[in-house]
Amino acid sequence: MTSTPSDRFPRPEAYGEGSVWADRVGHRSLVGRNQRGVEIPIGQGEGEISPGELLKLALIGCAGMSSDFAIGRRLGEDFAMRLWAHGTSDGETNRYARIPEEIQLDLEGLDEAALARLVTVVGRAIESGCTVERSIVPGVEVTHRILGVEADPEARA
């Protein structure tokens, strides 16, 4: 299903592929939409997601999509993965100074060398392929850690 903005306001000249929009539906409450018909309630209320949470979801969504192929080559095509992004904005500066990300994978059966290679290829895949992170870094420190791997195995070498 495709979606276009209502005619309440004229579409901006820049409207096209990749455009998203948000319509105000109440006090500090919006509905974000894309052209594929997805709607996301944005705000601080029940059933809404905050802009900061959207930022963190965009980061981990991009990290997951960017690393999917590299992880699948090592763990098999049907691997399970959960990504986390943590942190709150600093009230004084009103910005996120750091957003730690964590990736959960089934690491059973991987030896230390395979773990080290996994950490390396995941980091490279995200660094080169994650448009969201590449767009906001170096303004925000974003870290990645695969849960279950004690430390960066390359750092021990």
TrEMBL record:
Gene3D superfamilies: 3.30.300.20
InterPro entries cross-referenced by the UniProt entry: KH_dom-like_a/b (IPR015946), OsmC/Ohrsf (IPR036102)
Listed SUPFAM superfamilies: OsmC-like
Keywords recorded for this protein, A-Z: Oxidoreductase, Peroxidase
Top EC class for this record: oxidoreductase
EC number(s) stated in the UniProt entry for this protein: 1.11.1.-
GO molecular function, one term: peroxidase activity
Record flagged with keyword Coiled coil: no
Entry annotated with the keyword Oxidoreductase: yes
Protein name as annotated: OsmC family protein
